[in-house]
Automatic annotation (TrEMBL), chains A, B:
Pfam families in alphabetical order: HNH_2, SAD_SRA
Protein's name in the database: YDG domain-containing protein
One GO MF term attached to the UniProt entry: ubiquitin protein ligase activity
One example of a Gene Ontology biological process annotation: negative regulation of gene expression via chromosomal CpG island methylation
Organism: Virgisporangium aliadipatigenens
PROSITE patterns: YDG (PS51015)
Domain YDG: from-to ranges: 7-148
């Protein structure tokens, strides 16, 4: 595994300015001289957002970042498909491992968010989602949703409060429920629609409501029963990471090897809207285009 | 299922004051005239914190709340063991379903946090953990950690931003990692130490680092390798909810039926500290005392 430094670089607080990439590289805040992502498949430590990819969207505390590869840096256009390899795989890995990414904005990025000249270190972000889509130029791009870690904030409501100075290392399952989510779980009696498992605990059965087309930006899937599956935590992780998808015949398939895992389990009054299933397949599951890419490009 | 009203009661904003329980009950903010928990095994909608249980701890935005049952309301002492039934089961259910609990503080509770007289509605809290322990009076009590939902806060870093007015319904897996957590997952090559499963995704294997003795108040388990297990999400949920525990012979057992599930899988350099295993068993797993209670008391 590469020797990576996650988190703040001593001596370079948020807001630190750099005249050019050479100066930025020398500081250690973003080490490569050209690449937008400093990372490999083991993880990514920093990214530069500077307008090189036409699909980037910068909302300040939230960034929809485009992976690397397949672009023409002069024309700032995509000219080929991107793959989930190298720094792209690294950003996805950060999502799984919880490692933060240093975000550096450069002149040329979003007008409202970027410095007028040079580069600026803008703090630590988390990778909270990754998926793929066809970008503005007609080629497949990988996308990462990053949200700023507010170091001044109180611990979020469901966090386990930790003594100052202790390394934080936990997974929080913050469950925000809705009547529709609860109803779908009830209709399935908390049995996973993929594997049929019902987790039994001293406090009763446990299941999760998974949104097929995700809630929130940029997907904006609705919180309706047709967009919700009742899943065990394992299959929830697999669905959200695109490791499994549902085809138009209600068959659950593995995106890793395209194997058929079985029919999606049904419950009488729970009608799934296959528009959302298609959206998930096209943005999270590995599509046929992607499989072809894997076969030919590796 | 009982007809429950979760969340704010219209007309009664945070800070609303009530002279007595009758007035409080009439408002609908906390419907029972005597019970501290308004709820059943399907969920709990509100609680009153007013010093009736000697083990309650009130930190303002965080409350370690004692379940109901087994206390002498006059002497304010525990005189019998508590069980995970009725309102206690309901609070645990809220943790699973994500439903918020209205918290009402009454005079007689923590000096710093409680009103001088009568009762005050203090907002919505989440149930983020539940476990059992032997209370100050020597009897088993159920404990619930509640944290205040800050309705004014920005969305927490990893939340999916949702348009205003849309019901929020999602599970967030906010992963905060540490070198020790990552190292344990690596040592096990992301295989669950309970079932041996390794979740495969397009972005590589996914596993979770579970702290045996939880981090944070009041457990304050350390973030060391001896206190971490590499688990699949399903077994992480089962461990955290006390559905499974590890005995002193490294055997994983179901707390639901006490069945042996198998030996905890080992990795050469990963040495588990059985002090933490014992802590987990005594506070999350159903102990022999608890099993006896189930047998005799139901």
């Amino acid at each position: 595994m590469a020797d990576r430094t996650y988190g703040e670089i001593p001596g370079y607080p948020v807001g630190s300015a750099f005249t050019n990439r050479a100066e930025l590289a020398k500081s250690g805040v973003h080490r490569p001289n050209q690449a937008g992502i400093c990372g490999g498949k083991d993880g990514a430590e920093s990214i530069v957002v500077s307008g090189g990819y036409p699909d980037d969207e910068d909302f300040g505390n939230e960034i929809i970042y485009t992976g690397h590869g397949g672009n023409d840096p002069q024309a700032k256009r995509q000219i080929a498909h991107q793959k989930l390899i190298q720094g792209n795989a690294g950003l996805a890995r950060n999502q799984f491992e919880g490692n933060p990414v240093r975000v550096i904005r450069g002149a040329g990025g979003d007008n409202d968010q970027s410095p007028a000249s040079g580069f600026r270190y803008d703090g630590l972000f988390r990778v909270v989602d990754h998926w793929h889509e066809i970008g503005k130029d007609g080629y497949r791009i990988w996308r990462f949703r990053l949200t700023k870690i507010d170091s001044n904030a109180n611990p979020s409501p469901a966090s386990r409060t930790e003594p100052a100075g202790r390394a934080s290392a936990t997974i929080q399952r913050i469950i925000r429920s809705s009547a529709n989510a609860r109803r779908v779980k009830e209709l399935h009696d908390h049995r996973c629609q993929v594997c049929g498992l019902r987790l039994e605990t001293p406090a009763g059965p446990y299941s999760e409501a998974a949104h097929i087309k995700p809630l929130g930006r940029p997907h904006d899937g609705p919180d309706v029963q047709g967009n919700i599956l009742c899943l065990c935590p394992n299959h929830h992780v697999l669905l959200d990471s695109g490791a499994i998808y549902v085809d138009d015949h209600s068959v659950v398939r593995s995106a890793v090897d395209d194997m058929k895992l079985g029919e999606l389990r049904t419950a009488g009054k729970h009608i799934i809207d296959y528009t959302f299933v298609k959206y998930h397949r096209e943005h999270y599951g590995i599509s046929e285009i992607e499989i072809e890419l894997h076969d030919h490009g590796g």
